[in-house]
Design goal:
CATH architecture of one domain: Beta Barrel
Number of strands: 35
Shape: globular
Strand order of the largest sheet: 27-28-29-30-33-34-1-2-3-35-32-31
CATH topology of one domain: Thrombin, subunit H
Radius of gyration: 21 Å
Distance between the termini: 20 Å
Number of helices: 0
């Protein structure tokens, strides 16, 4: 099936019409097969994506666009950014971290502001200089219904999304996976890399609203070789509806001991780069289920980028190359994106998002009906600009490189 991107959906009053900020709508296909596109948008530039109670919010082109689960625009709010924005949702409150790197127009500075459900600005803070995340790659902004967090490479700061008041600060390290909980606290998953006779351990902890760590759990490993060593790393994490979280990552050891659950490394071919894993954890740090998923070796690799909880299951979005990854087709010389649903029993159903160039997953949200909304960056290849999802193909010309796609459950 060949589908054109036809219908401009934004009025001139939105302030985001014409090149390069035009958003076009994919033809709707509400009866699409599982993993295929039901609704979609094509964008000329990157977009931040955050889940809302009824759909998604999209930060692009200096404004915030709110869409329902069918990606129909509900409203638009001007974001008034000085630099580049990072978007997060705390219930019905929209939070934007605005980083201006400075230059010819003035010094670097950061701002943080919040908008109500009606689009009214609740507060705006100029964060000035000397903040602990200054100079960090990022920083990143995350939120839950009761709190929000800014974090860089060494520290995370929690604050009240209703007022902007600071609540707590905690040390983190580069590579940690962080998740805001429902009441203003924070989950932190930390990996480790070890050389020599020791083996790595992973640590998960929960920071309460008071700023204190109220629990810490440790995952141990078994060495893959007699001299020990190896690593455990986290690449994605997200809050779950039961007050816990889901995580994805890698281990290069023979086993990963997640409390009472043990995962064994999947068979590897050639270079031993590791085995992927996905785990669901309750609000006290106990692992509810875990599964080994994908390898990175001479035959191919898989990179989990985003994860979301869906009931007792998890939805994973990332990219892969080569063959033998989660049942996905071989990618030849390109890197393709994918969306996979991983059940608590370990069953994996994965769907490829391919193209003539490299594809990558930039954002993920899962709706109440189980549909997954993803932002895909599509690098144009020598063969053209076609994006392929199952039996569907999309092409909107060389100027569109980002797609927001709602995939059937």
């Amino acid at each position: 099936m060949s589908v054109r991107l036809l219908v401009p959906i934004l009025a001139a009053a939105s302030g985001c019409t014409g090149t390069p900020c035009q958003l076009d709508r994919l033809d709707d296909m509400p009866t699409a097969a599982p993993g295929e596109v039901r609704h979609g948008l094509a964008l000329a530039q990157d977009a931040g994506l955050a889940a809302t109670a009824t759909g998604v919010a999209c930060l692009t082109c200096g404004g915030i666009f709110y869409f329902d689960s069918a990606l129909t625009e509900q409203r638009y709010v001007a974001a008034e950014l000085d630099g580049s924005g990072e978007l997060a949702m705390a219930g019905d409150t929209t939070l934007v971290f605005d980083r201006d790197p400075g230059g010819a127009t003035g010094p670097a500075h950061d701002q943080l502001f919040a908008l109500s459900a009606a689009g009214r600005e609740l507060w705006r803070d100029d964060l000035g200089t000397g903040e602990p995340w200054q100079g960090a790659v990022g920083p990143d902004l995350i939120a839950g219904p009761g709190g929000a967090v800014i974090y860089g490479e060494t520290v995370a700061s929690g604050f009240d999304p209703a007022t902007g008041a600071a609540r707590w600060m905690t040390a983190v390290q580069r590579g940690d996976a962080l998740v805001a909980d429902a009441v203003g606290g924070l989950f932190v998953a930390s990996g480790a890399s070890v050389l020599g006779p020791a083996t790595p351990q992973a640590t998960l902890r929960h920071i309460a609203v008071s700023g204190a760590a109220d629990w810490t759990v440790t995952w141990t490993t078994t060495a893959a070789a007699p001299d020990g060593g190896g690593d455990v790393s986290f690449t994605a994490a997200a809050a779950a509806g039961d007050g816990g979280l889901v995580v994805a990552g890698w281990f290069t050891t023979a086993t990963l001991e997640l409390g009472d659950v043990q995962l064994s490394a999947l068979p590897l071919h050639g270079a031993i780069d590791g085995t992927g894993f996905v785990a669901a954890i309750d609000g006290s740090g106990t692992v509810r289920w875990a599964v080994a998923a994908g390898t990175s070796d001479a035959d191919g690799r898989i990179a989990p980028r985003r994860i979301a909880a869906q009931g007792d299951a998890a939805v994973l979005c990332g990219d892969h190359a080569g063959a033998a990854q989660l049942g996905l087709p071989a990618t030849d010389a390109t890197t393709d994106a994918f969306v996979a649903r991983i059940a608590a029993g370990g069953d994996v159903t994965a769907h490829a998002i391919a193209g003539d160039g490299d594809q990558s997953c930039e954002a993920l949200a899962v709706a109440a009906d189980g549909s997954a909304t993803v932002t895909i960056h599509s690098a144009r290849g020598p063969g053209g600009s076609v994006l392929r999802v199952g039996s569907q193909s999309f092409d909107d010309g060389p100027e569109k490189t980002f797609y927001v796609l709602n995939l059937a459950p």
